[in-house]
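#lab-general

N.A. 3:47 PM
ok so I finally got the sequence cleaned up, no stray characters, all 235 residues accounted for. can someone with queue access submit it? mine expired

B.Y. 3:52 PM
send it over

N.A. 3:53 PM
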Amino acid sequence: MNYTTKALFLKSIRYGERARILHFYTARQGLKGYVLKGDPARWGKSKNASFSPLSIHQLEATPARRGSLDYLRSAHTELSFLTVHPTKTAIVFFLTELLNRVLREAEANPSLFDYLIDRVRFLRDAQHYADFHLCFVLDLTRYLGFYPDLQASPTAYFGLREGTYLTQKPESHCLSGEALRLFQKLSRLKLAEPRPHFNQAQRKQLLQTLEQYYCLHLAGFQAFESLSVLEQLFD
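B.Y. 4:20 PM
back already:
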């Protein structure tokens, strides 16, 4: 029996000569792949679907008789970033790269799904978004299980491996001084505030800190390929 689900598009992979596998994060099943048969370009136009990074869709699919890949019958696009400013597009590609690396569970997670949909909608409509990607990367760790303990009594050192303040400086992976001040400021940032809070150099430092934090807490996590692009934005 066919079913419907809301879904966030992540990536597409060629599957034979006349099909593709489309990967989504869905409300119904978490991370999920679907087989799309036929010419993807013609299929998309005829079904009112635009599969671009972080686009939101209402899917109709048929469960597979064998294997984990269901068959995509139709998709209605509710939100797309196809016509946004190039700077916002660069952020979308960066966040898509991140989500493709960290979303691994094929089971429903309503709180994470709602968070992702809410943040994507916010970015699509935001007029001021210079610090959005920084907040997103940090906040996502709440749902991945390793949000840093920045509510504890502050000390001069913050251990990235430990995820909390330390009374003594560890041998490696430590924040102190200006780097720690920036990390603390980021944790208090509210996206609804209209003005940018960091300059280009500070954003670069924070992105490198966040990348290191993910590498320490997620097995197999690799450095961002699109990080160099973001480091040049919002000068």
